[in-house]
Specification:
The protein is an alpha+beta fold and 474 residues long. The protein is built from 16 helices and 16 strands. A hairpin with a 2-residue loop joins strand 9 and strand 10.
C-alpha cells in the first residue's frame, strides 16, 4: 500500500487592515463664471432676500410672518392658522414632496444645486473665503504656508465674517418665532433663555455646515443623495460628460487639430474637477455626490471657448440623449413622459384644492365639550339642564360678535351666556354654557342636539356644532 501524502500546513495570509473611514481631503473649489453660476447666485439672492427680509414686513400692525408658539397661532400675511389647521401643514409637506419628485424626474438635483440651504450658505461662505484668502491656488498656498501674522490675520478675518453671518442667520431664524422688531433691540441687554439657545444653535449649525463640513453634509449626512436614483430614469436630464465626443482625452495646443492626433475634445485640463464643490470628476459618470450645481458645465464651456471647440462637452443631457444623439428639442419632448405628467397633474390638483380651501376657509371655529362633572341636573321644577364648555375662535383679524342658539329638542334654550359674545381679532373665548329643556320634552336618554353660532356682522360666518343632551330617568 502507498503511504498517504503528507499534509503540508498552509501559512495564514497576513492580515490586511481596512479603514472604514476615509480621512477628509480638503477641497478648494475654483471660482467659475457662466450662465449656471449666474443662475445659482440669482437663487442665492432670491432665497436670502426672502429669508432675511420676510420677518421685517408688517401686516395689520403685526409681523407679517410670525409663528407664535406661545399663543399657538401662525400668522402668514392675512391668514391666521390655529392648531386645528394642522391639515394645511400636511398639505404643504405633500406639495413639497411632489415638487421634489417632479423636479428630480425632469432634471435631477435642481433643489440641491440651486436652492438647498446647505448649497446657498456654502456658496456665500466660499465667496467670503475667496474675497479674503484669494482663489483656489492662493488658498492652497496659504494652507501650505507656515504660520505667520498675515496667515492668522486672513483666517481670523474670514472666520469673523462667517460667524457674523451665522449669528445673524440665527437671529433671523428666531425672529420668525419671536417678533424680530422686539428681538433685535433686546440683544444688547440679553436674550431670553430659549431665544439665546436657538440663536447660538442655529448660528453654530450654519457656521459648521457651511464653513467646515460643506461637501461632507451632501455626501454623508443628506439622505436625498442616497435615494435620488430611485427618481431617475434614462430620460431624466442629468449633468453628464459626452464620452463619445471627449475621449480619448489629452492635452494639446490650441492650433493642433485633435483628430490628427487621435484625440477627442477633452484637453484633460481638470477644470471640471477644480470647480466642483464636492470634488468629484464628472468624467467618471453620474455619481451620488454630484449635487447638480452645473459648475463643471460653466468651467468646461470656458475651456471649449478658448480652444475654439463647440461648447457642451459637459452639459445637461439624458442617458437616452447621449446614446441616441438627441438634439435639445427631442430631449425636451421626451421629458414630458407619463410619470412627469402624472406628477404635474397631482401637484397642480393639490395646489388648486389647497388654494380653494384657503379661499373658502371659515374664519370661525367652535369646540364644544360636555362638563363631565355634571352630566345632567334639575335646574328647577320640571327643567333639566346640561352644562358645556364652548370655545369660540375668531381666526379672522376682524373683531366679531356672535350669537348662540340651540336646536334638536322641543323648547331647548341657551342659558348662562350674555349674548352677543364678543371675540377679539384673531382671538378666542372659552365660556361655560347651559342648555335647558323641559323634563317631558323627550324620553329619558341621550339626544343629539346642535349649537348654532352666528356672527352678528356677517351671517355667512357661522358654525353648527353637534353635541348631546342627556335627559335622566325620573
Amino acid at each position: 500500500m502507498n503511504a498517504p501524502d503528507k499534509v503540508v500546513p498552509i501559512a495564514p495570509a497576513p492580515a490586511e487592515e481596512v479603514s472604514l473611514y476615509e480621512i477628509r481631503k480638503k477641497i478648494h473649489p475654483r471660482a467659475v463664471t457662466g450662465g449656471f453660476a449666474t443662475l445659482r447666485w440669482a437663487a442665492v439672492a432670491f432665497t436670502q432676500v426672502i429669508f432675511y427680509g420676510l420677518p421685517w414686513l408688517m401686516w395689520n400692525d403685526r409681523q407679517a410672518v410670525l409663528f407664535d408658539l406661545g399663543a399657538r397661532k401662525f400668522y402668514i400675511g392675512g391668514l391666521v392658522f390655529w392648531p386645528q389647521d394642522v391639515i394645511y401643514l400636511a398639505v404643504l409637506l405633500i406639495i413639497a414632496a411632489y415638487a421634489l419628485f417632479l423636479f428630480t424626474a425632469v432634471a435631477g438635483r435642481l433643489w440641491c444645486g440651486y436652492a438647498c440651504p446647505q448649497t446657498v450658505y456654502t456658496e456665500m461662505f466660499m465667496w467670503v473665503e475667496r474675497k479674503v484668502e484669494g482663489d483656489r491656488a492662493a488658498r492652497i498656498r496659504l494652507d501650505a504656508a507656515p504660520l505667520s501674522a498675515s496667515k492668522v490675520g486672513k483666517r481670523a478675518t474670514k472666520h469673523a465674517i462667517w460667524i457674523a453671518i451665522a449669528l445673524w442667520t440665527g437671529v433671523t431664524f428666531v425672529g420668525y418665532f419671536t417678533p424680530i422688531r422686539e428681538l433685535v433691540p433686546s440683544i444688547p441687554f440679553g436674550l431670553g433663555g430659549w431665544e439665546a439657545f436657538w440663536v447660538l444653535f442655529y448660528g453654530f449649525a450654519t457656521y459648521g455646515n457651511a464653513g467646515w463640513m460643506r461637501e461632507q453634509v451632501c455626501k454623508y449626512m443628506c439622505p436625498y443623495a442616497r435615494f435620488q436614483s430611485a427618481m431617475f430614469d434614462k430620460d431624466t436630464l442629468i449633468i453628464a460628460y459626452d464620452t463619445g465626443r471627449g475621449e480619448p482625452r489629452g492635452s494639446r495646443g490650441k492650433s493642433v487639430d485633435p483628430k490628427s492626433k487621435g484625440l477627442g475634445d477633452c484637453v484633460d485640463c481638470g477644470i471640471c474637477v477644480q470647480v466642483c464643490p464636492t470634488g468629484i470628476d464628472i468624467r467618471q459618470g453620474l455619481q451620488y455626490e454630484c449635487i447638480g450645481c452645473a459648475a463643471c458645465i460653466d468651467g468646461c464651456n470656458q475651456v471649449m471657448g478658448k480652444m475654439g471647440y463647440p461648447k457642451g462637452l459637459i452639459r445637461y443631457v439624458s442617458e437616452h440623449g447621449l446614446e441616441q444623439a438627441y438634439d435639445r428639442a427631442a430631449m425636451l419632448r421626451r421629458a414630458l413622459r407619463p410619470r412627469v405628467l402624472i406628477y404635474t397633474a397631482i401637484l397642480v390638483a393639490i395646489i388648486v384644492a389647497a388654494g380653494l380651501s384657503l379661499a373658502s376657509r371659515n374664519p370661525l371655529k367652535v369646540d364644544v365639550l360636555r362638563d363631565r362633572g355634571a352630566l345632567a341636573r334639575e335646574a328647577g321644577p320640571g327643567v333639566i339642564e346640561n352644562v358645556y364648555r364652548v370655545q369660540i375662535m375668531n381666526t379672522d383679524e376682524t373683531p366679531r360678535r356672535f350669537t348662540i342658539e340651540a336646536s334638536g329638542l322641543p323648547g331647548l334654550k341657551v342659558a348662562g351666556v350674555e349674548q352677543p359674545v364678543a371675540v377679539e381679532a384673531a382671538g378666542s373665548k372659552l365660556l361655560p354654557l347651559r342648555l335647558t329643556v323641559g323634563a317631558e320634552a323627550a324620553p329619558p336618554g341621550t339626544h343629539k342636539v346642535e349649537l348654532h353660532v352666528r356672527a352678528v356682522e356677517d351671517a355667512t360666518v357661522a358654525r353648527d356644532e353637534h353635541t348631546t343632551f342627556i335627559l335622566p330617568k325620573p
